[in-house]
Design brief:
Distance between the termini: 45 Å
Order of helices and strands: HHHHHHHHHHHHHHHHHHH
Keywords: Cell membrane, Membrane, Transmembrane, Transmembrane helix, Transport
Transmembrane segments: 12-33, 53-73, 85-107, 113-131, 143-162, 168-187, 199-219, 231-248, 268-293, 305-326, 333-350, 356-380, 465-486
Oligomer: single chain
Largest sheet: none
Shape: globular
Structural class: mainly alpha
Pfam families: MFS_1
Strand content: under 5%
Radius of gyration: 24 Å
Number of strands: 0
CATH topology of the largest domain: Growth Hormone, Chain: A
Number of domains: 3
Family: Belongs to the major facilitator superfamily. EmrB family.
CATH architecture of the largest domain: Up-down Bundle
Protein name: DHA2 family efflux MFS transporter permease subunit
CATH superfamily of the largest domain: MFS general substrate transporter like domains
Length: 512
């Protein structure tokens, strides 16, 4: 019996390893391209507004498909779903590598995203099913290594590749890994989660796509176009209306596409809110640090990426450790310690200046990531632990969707705050310079004026970054207060009915 159990454990570990690699390359690919956007603009002769769709479009497809992932996970087998998702991702990667024109590259990114959107919820759901609740912390901690480390090392890796190779190399590196993962999945992957013969409500899918897609597009565009642009507030309004209609429809359905009734479980509801608040705070570092380091301090993209690398490594090391600590001590202690680190480092970031050393920036950023590593997965896992197993697909889909939406909202709000503060401070500095100028002095040269304008702009932008980090500090304080109300949950005991003991009937048509 022990030998059989050992073989089953090895098979499970091998299966999860395949899912991990697939999820890792798909998440890594999401941030790899950001540094390469200027090179792609030059090669295809497109404007910044067009090239930005390579990132925005990827996020939009994720935001549209992730809510539907709960249906896919329940309706289709793990093996078929992963192979389909990985095939789409691999096809998109190949097309992107060979893309002769920009439109083909954009289509390739959309195809990639359609595969990537399913992988994360599928992996999380398999792990919740495969591991007993007393071991989920360690398992989800390892999962956090993928979720957090992949996007963190993306900018560093892509910065090095772009300095030495064509942007196409970003896809050429990912392609063989994707192909090998697909081959292993075809031969080794087995089914873990149970399937149910449920039907897809097409109208719900349409409402979900318009709702989440509208919100993501509107808030993502606000940073560039401004809140007064009709495309921005128009898509947000349409998104809110569609989303409210979608939620009301789900609450009236016996078999909803996305189960909102899971919010009756208090710890899941609390963990969901805390995760959204943390995602907003985390984006401040990811957005503001490159602006400060590259634009204000003039540090190269490669050195900017290296500055963030120790933080990524610390998060990678800490994720499995945090998982084991979660199993032993629960989520509240870890969240309080982690958020304390996040609050203190965010406050220090609100005090950085032109003279702050490179080493100080590395230390602050690394400590901030250390704090984040103790919060995200424990909080999320504690909430998911309270759900009945049949609701795990809905819980994972809900968490992933809300993180996408809160990330977009957080980044848009932070960029808006930074821009407003920068404009205000720039006006103040110009007024000060005019007030202190000697009217009898000779007129400065054009070069001197240009230098003065650059100094004023940098000082104003630094003030904007400092102010935004201060707001981020208060956001983290809100998360800390909420974390104090967390309790270690007792697994929800499900009643096994006679109906559940009957084998699943043959699959019928999915769309009706």
């Amino acid at each position: 019996m022990s030998e059989l159990q050992s073989n089953q454990n090895k098979s499970m570990i091998g299966m999860i390893a395949i899912l991990f690699i697939g999820a890792f390359v798909s998440i890594l690919n999401e941030t790899l391209l950001n540094v390469a956007l200027p090179s792609i603009m030059d090669e295809f002769e497109v404007k910044p507004t067009a090239v930005q769709w390579l990132s925005t479009g990827y996020m939009l497809v994720n935001g549209i498909l992730i809510p539907a992932s709960a249906f896919f996970i329940q309706r289709f087998s793990d093996r078929k779903l992963f192979i389909t998702a990985m095939s789409l991702f691999t096809l998109g990667t190949l097309l992107a590598s060979l893309a002769p024109v920009f439109s083909v590259l954009l289509a390739a990114r959309m195809i990639q995203a359609s595969g990537s959107a399913i992988m994360m919820p599928l992996l999380m759901n398999v792990m919740l099913t495969a591991f007993p609740i007393e071991k989920r912390g360690a398992a989800m901690g390892t999962f956090g290594l993928v979720m957090i480390t992949a996007p963190a090392i993306g900018p560093t890796l892509s910065g090095w590749i772009i300095e030495h190779h064509s942007w196409r190399m970003l896809f050429d590196i990912v392609l063989p890994i994707a192909i090998l993962t697909l081959i292993f999945a075809f031969f080794k992957l087995k089914d873990v989660t149970p399937q149910r013969s449920i039907k897809l409500d097409v109208f719900s899918l349409v409402l979900s796509s318009i709702g989440f897609g509208g919100l993501l597009y509107g808030f993502s565009s606000a940073g560039d176009k401004g809140w007064n642009d009709p495309y921005v507030y128009g898509t947000i309004i349409v998104g809110v209306i569609a989303l409210v209609t979608f939620v009301l429809r789900q609450l009236r359905m016996d078999e909803p596409m996305l189960e909102f009734r899971i919010y009756k479980y208090p710890m899941f509801a609390l963990s969901s809110v805390i995760s959204m608040v943390i995602a907003m705070a985390m984006f401040s570092g990811m957005i503001l640090m490159p602006i400060y380091v590259q634009t204000i301090r003039g540090i190269s993209p490669m050195e900017s990426g290296l500055l963030m690398l120790p933080g990524a490594i610390v998060m990678g090391i800490m994720s499995p450790i945090t998982g084991r600590l979660f199993d032993k001590y629960g989520a509240r202690s870890l969240a309080v310690i982690g958020l304390t680190f996040t609050i203190v480092t965010s406050f220090y970031f609100s005090k950085i200046s032109m003279e702050t050393t490179y080493f100080t920036l590395i230390m602050l950023y690394t400590l901030r990531m250390f704090g984040m590593s103790m919060v995200m997965m424990p909080v999320m896992t504690n909430g998911l632990n309270q759900l009945p197993q049949k609701n795990n697909p809905h819980g994972t889909a809900m968490n992933n969707t809300l993180q996408q939406v809160s990330g977009a909202i957080g980044s848009a709000l932070l960029i808006t705050l930074m821009n407003n503060r920068t404009e205000t401070r720039a006006g103040e500095l110009v007024a000060q310079a005019a007030a202190t100028a000697d009217p009898n002095a000779a007129q400065p040269t054009a070069e001197a004026l240009a230098q003065m304008e650059e100094q004023i702009l940098n000082q104003a932008m630094l003030s904007g970054i400092n102010f935004t980090f201060l707001i981020s500090t208060f956001i983290a304080v809100v998360a800390l207060i909420l974390a104090l109300f967390m309790k270690r949950v007792t697994p929800h005991q499900e009643e096994t009915t006679k109906e559940e003991l009957v084998p699943t009937p043959p699959m019928k048509s999915v769309v009706e």
